[in-house]
Each structure stands twice: as C-alpha cells, then as structure tokens.
Amino acid sequence: MMRARTPSIHHRMMDREITVAREICFCGWVGELEDREPVYAGDGEWGLGCPMCGHLDRLEAWSEAARGRTLAEAAQRRESTVNATLDT
Ligand SMILES: [Zn+2]
Predict the structure, then answer these.
(1) E strands of 13-83, at which residues?
(2) Could you tell me what percent of the chain has a pLDDT over 70?
(3) β-pairing, 45-49 with 22-24?
(4) Is the pLDDT of residue 8 over 70?
(5) Which of the residues 44, 62, 70, 77 has the least number of beta carbons within 10 Å of its own beta carbon?
(6) CB within 5 A of ion ligand 1: which residues?
(7) What's the pLDDT score for residue 75?
(8) Range(s) of the domain holding residue 65
(9) What's the CA-to-centroid distance between 10 and ligand 1, angstroms?
(10) How many domains does the chain have?
(11) Residues 25, 27, 30, 34: is their CA dihedral positive or negative?
C-alpha cells in the first residue's frame, strides 16, 4: 500500500521531459519534437515529419494525450513561423 503515495510532482516532471525532448533523425536533423511538421498519415492519424528529409514519425509509442499535445504544439509553432515570415 506504500505505492498509493505517488507524489504528483513526478507526473509534472514526466510532462516536462516530454516537452523538451530532443529528436535526432537519421538524416542528421536535431531539434525539438515540436519543431517537426505535423503530417496527416491517413486513417485519422497524424504524425510529425522531419523538416529536412520528411521522415514521418507517427508517435505510435505515445499515449493519445501526449501525442495530441505534441501535435497541437507543433502546429502552433508552424503557424507562428509562417506569420513571422510573412511579416518580414
Ligand atoms: Zn530527417
């Protein structure tokens, strides 16, 4: 029954680790997962494509919640990138 006392801070740290995770693609591209491009993979599934080689990671190992959050963040970053490009 000692396991019931899981500190909630542990959960927050896990979230943070996912958010700042660095991705290394086999093509040599290194960056944050959210800097990859959201790509529709079909069947209602989305993945993140490498901006350099287009390699698609469907994030199959991820939970649905973590995947949704990452995809949303990636889409948001792309939007702000596009806006910044248009402004200049
Ligand atoms: Zn790549």
Answers:
(1) 22-24, 30-32, 37-42, 45-49, 56-57
(2) 67
(3) unpaired
(4) no
(5) 44
(6) 25, 27, 29, 50, 52-53, 55
(7) 93
(8) 19-87
(9) 32
(10) 1
(11) negative
